Amino acid sequence: MIPPHGGKLIDTTFPEEKRDRMLAEAKELPRIVVNEDLAKDIENIGYGIFSPLDGFLCGEDYESVVHHKRLRNDLPWTIPIVLNVSREELKGTKDGDIIALADSHGTVTSLLEIKEIYGFDKHQHALQIFGTVDSAHPGVAGTFNMKELLVGGKVSLIQPSSDEFQRFRLKPAETRVLFNEKGWRTVVGFQTRNVPHIGHEYVQKTALTFVDGLFVNPVIGKKKPGDFKDEVILEAYATLLRNYYLKDRSVMAILRTEMRYAGPREAIFHAIVRKNFGCTHFVVGRDHAGVGKYYPPYAAQEIFDEFPDLGIVPLFFTAFFYCNKCESVVNEKICPHDQSNRIDFSGTLLRGRLNAGEAPPKELIRPEVAEVLLKWKDPFIE
Amino acid sequence: MKGIDMPAEKTRTVEIPESLFERIGALISGTRFRSVSEYVVYMLREQIAKEEIQKTPAYSKDEEEKIKDRLRALGYI
Known about the structure:
By secondary structure, chain A is α/β, with parallel strands linked by helices. Helices cover 32% and strands 19% of the residues of chain A. Chain A has 13 helices and 15 strands.
């Protein structure tokens, strides 16, 4: 079994028998409210999905991640996981204090032992993480809306913020037991934020040809308008796996975190997370975690050259499409026919057909999946 | 990124035989490695990753059985 990133699977959860006591104690503590996405990432820290992180980054680690794509102990890490606060929210709390973190409903989910409170440069944060300071980039816009301070320190999880999609929520300790139980020595992780079309199926099954098992791991969290709703993605994937995949060779569980749209850096981050789940391989396609035209189409593959010590093997795929002449899904490396034979897996085409109440062509989407998509009145995030 | 001043990474000096230094210099000529140091750092990170393995299991047998119970309840096994 592949070791977790950093060698140890982090677990900062309080045992269940201590939960009520910790919640009672938390009532007496200063409290900071975090948004839904940060609440998810607190769980990710607690369950070891973000191993080796056991809390929010302190200043030196933050600067090292931003400028050198590594923690200060040299371990690869490319996306800063930080608690962003205002001076007013801190209300006189200082290094060494323990505070409660609550979700937007006021439910305390965790405790934070403050190790460091520090300022940061928003311009550098945006430029280094997203490669741009164009405020039209969703990540850059978010950066410039950040408050002035960051807080680092260990986070201990008391309870999750929500029970959504329990059927598909597995922790790394659970996926590792699952992969072992299935006899999988090699596992390929597949990251997605979309409903499955036949191109995705082609990539997944091609990757699966070379390993023992496939771990389909949709991202559930903040996405952009026009993306499919989480519940639609899950039902579509469950339908696809049930009808077209071998149960012994494929599993699906969700990753609850926001999409940063940080392109190359996020590709490395996504690979690390799947390594923590127990994957030995990770699919990286064209423009992984990209948005608009901010990143060269294969920059998210090229960045892996910088990390010979990442510990998970990337499987790179070029752009794929359906060729009427080949009569199958192909990619640029294997199809010799001209573009007039191509049907591209276009999100625009798919949305157009769905909005018109029509099933997309069977060359693009399995009919069972199309049926699922068509039954949703509003499948897209507005 | 070009033109951007990044805080310098802290470094320490390690000695290697001059012959090895020259050998590496010849090897990396025309490659993407801009210096012997960059090449050595790359190779060392690659090697270290192979040697850093988890030596103790993440969970006990009891914990493993509880996990399997949940996986069965969810239909994974």
